[in-house]
Amino acid sequence: MGRIRENPRYNVISMRISEEELKHLEYLMQKTHKSASHIMREAMEYFAANYDEQTKSNRKAA
Fold first, then answer.
1. How would you classify residue 41: left for phi > 0, otherwise alpha for psi between -120 and 50, otherwise beta?
2. 11, CA 20 to 30 Å: which among 4, 28, 36, 60?
3. What is the pLDDT of residues 9-50, one digit of tens each?
């Protein structure tokens, strides 16, 4: 029987990226020893944490 996960992930998202973006992702994977999925999750967390600050800065500049 398979391992029971605390937070199973059932949803799959796919995206198209350029060759340059793929090379950058592969570089990050090699340097960090993390999967593409893990890097993308971290990128989403970073974006979410900084999104409010970015929108506030853009409003002040307008």
1. alpha
2. 28
3. 899 999 999 999 999 999 999 999 999 999 999 999 999 999
9 three-state secondary structure? coil
Which one-letter amino acid corresponds to residue 60?
A: K
Count the neighbouring beta carbons within 10 Å of the beta carbon of residue 59: 8
Long-range contacts of 38-41 (CB under 8 A, 24+ apart): none
Domain boundaries, the chain: 35-62
Give this prediction's pTM. Answer: 0.70
| Token pair for 44 | 């989403």
CA distance 9 to 62: 40
